[in-house]
Design goal:
24 strands, Elongation Factor Tu (Ef-tu), domain 3, conserved putative lor/sdh protein from methanococcus maripaludis s2 fold, 19% helix, disordered C terminus, alpha+beta, OB fold (Dihydrolipoamide Acetyltransferase, E2P), 7-stranded mixed β-sheet
Length: 344
């Protein structure tokens, strides 16, 4: 079974160098200030689990063209903010412009002929069949002109919505074909979380349900907009999409984790968040809040994905691990404050 243990989150910044070892020196306690920490649970209060996710814009477009042409001008760069309708890339359209002029000339000619037939028809000097034929010719010529104008429009790559240029794939002078990626545009406004979930994790979830999440230390709330469990034939996992309700303006592409109530944690046994780890050379450990002090504990960790790693040895069930230790030192006095919980 999953053995849950309590995590502790530092509430103030600490100064000083980390002292290795597990035994406290009485001189250290006198020199180091007491630090307030807040205890939180590493999983959902109702026995749920954290699911790794990515924060992204709900509107993303990879711009391409349906024409084979040479890139004439690139008018934007990565990171540039553009409004809807802004010209991003111009492709060469000289051949199409020549074809359009010829088609417009042909249309003008057949329209003139159409007017003459109409005049003769009024004088009973032409047949109804002749009028129908010329009307069909006019319609065909108009369709040809419209088609060429549409193709010319495809050489003008414009922003379909307001956003930021995420990446540029081509340079001026490049030859591109139909479907060639030109640039990626990320929209302003709404953001969403994208995660993969197993059938067990998705059980009980549905579109419209609200879930808690956190990203880069910021906690928020999102609403599930799409859920398709078991869609991947290899992993048997599906996709979960959730619209971010609050806060707004988080960094695109950031790692996040969604709290899935009622789901079983993926790993058996103890696990620790990556944010709690302390790396010193080849050694990895955590700080445990014990008897009013921070105790450095070296760990043996297993392989894992997402924000939590399984613990092979070094921790016991129920021990209180300090999250985001900063410059905390071994043996430093800590004070546990109440009333703070994660995922709510």
């Amino acid at each position: 079974m999953k053995s849950a243990f309590v995590l502790a989150s530092l509430s103030v910044a600490l100064l000083g160098n980390l002292a290795c070892g597990s035994k406290r020196d009485s001189r250290v306690e006198k020199e180091l200030p007491r630090v307030a920490v807040s205890l939180v649970a590493d999983g959902a209060p109702e026995g749920g689990a954290w699911v790794a996710a990515t924060l992204q814009s709900s509107r993303t477009a990879m711009m391409s063209t349906r024409m084979a042409a040479q890139v004439k001008r690139v008018l934007v760069q990565e990171g540039q903010r553009v409004s809807a309708g802004t010209l991003l890339i111009a492709l060469g359209d000289e051949d199409l412009q020549g074809q359009l002029r010829a088609a417009e000339t042909g249309l003008a000619t057949v329209q003139a002929y159409h007017r003459r037939i109409q005049a003769l028809q009024a004088q009973k000097a032409s047949t109804a069949v002749e009028l129908e034929q010329v009307e069909a010719q006019v319609a065909q010529a108009q369709a040809g002109v419209s088609s060429l104008k549409a193709n010319i429009a495809y050489t003008q790559i414009r922003a379909p919505f307001a956003g930021v240029v995420q990446s540029r794939k081509v340079n001026e002078g490049d030859f591109v074909g139909p479907g060639t990626p030109l640039l990626e545009l990320v929209g302003d406004g709404e953001q969403e979380l994208l995660a993969t979930v197993s059938e067990g994790e998705a059980k009980g979830l549905k579109a419209g349900a609200k879930v808690a999440f956190e990203s880069e230390g910021v906690q928020g709330e999102a609403q599930i907009t799409g859920l398709a469990p078991g869609g991947d034939p290899t992993s048997h996992k599906g996709t979960l999409r959730a619209k971010v309700l609050k806060p707004k303006g988080l960094r695109q592409g950031s790692f996040a984790r969604i709290l899935v109530p009622g789901a079983k944690a993926a790993a058996e046994g103890l696990s620790v968040p990556r944010s709690a780890l302390v790396q010193r050379g080849e050694l990895t450990g955590v700080f445990v809040a014990k008897d009013g002090h921070a105790e450095l504990r070296w760990l043996s960790l297993g392989e894992g994905e997402g924000s939590f790693l399984p613990v092979r040895s070094g921790l016991k069930e129920g021990e209180k691990v300090i999250d985001h230790p900063g410059a905390l030192q071994d043996g430093q006095p800590v004070e546990i404050s109440s009333g703070v919980s994660r995922g709510k």
